[in-house]
Amino acid sequence: MSIYGDYIKSVIRTVPDWPQEGVNFRDITPLLQNSSAFRKLIDSFVHRYQELDLDAIAAIDARGFIIGAPLAYELGCSFVPVRKKGKLPFKTISETYSLEYGHSSVELHSDAFQKGDRILVMDDLIATGGTMLAAAKLIQRSGGQVVETATIVDLPELGGSRRIREEGHNVFAVCSFLESE
After folding, report:
1. What is the pLDDT of residues 96-110, one digit of tens each?
2. Which are the contacts of 134, defined by CB distance < 8 A and separation ≥ 6?
3. Angle at 180 between CA 30 and CA 33, to 5 degrees
4. Which residues pair with 108 in a beta bridge?
5. Cα separations (Å) of 170 from 45, 50, 135, 136, 175?
6. pTM of the predicted protein model
7. Total of domains in the chain
8. Percent of the chain with pLDDT over 90
9. CA dihedral 68, 164, 8, 40 (to 10 degrees)
10. Are 75 and 86 in contact (CB under 8 A)?
11. Of 82 and 179, which is predicted with more confidence?
12. Is residue 5 a part of any domain in this protein?
């Protein structure tokens, strides 16, 4: 957790029973609307990664883009979007992952990375970890090295961060929520 973790967590809105009954949706919109909180969020990531030799931030469609782009700018590295299937115009590689009800895929341009590039994978939230693991696999297939996976919110009770660690990746979350919170 970052030095601003408790503050960031206090700004995130919990919407009970959305999108379905029994789900507590963690809404980052208030965090984005609060300029001080958003700056502290980006600073949390900058302070963690400023000493690392990163080549790129690979941010996951779409909310990962919101934090990945300013972080790449601040760190002076490139920004690479990991998109939902069918959204990239050039030759792509694809990775399919399981959802609670079905499957989905993410894609990456086939020339996004050079062999050995050091990549930070970024998204807004880790729930079951499927999207983050799919993005990490794409990066590895393209020759990149996943330095760490990073997110604003971890929902540890859903097991995603554990799964990501079990696959050999470090996980950094600015804050986490238990289902009862």
Report:
1. 998 767 799 999 999
2. 95, 96, 97, 105, 106
3. 5
4. 93
5. 14, 17, 14, 11, 15
6. 0.95
7. 1
8. 91
9. -40
10. no
11. 82
12. no
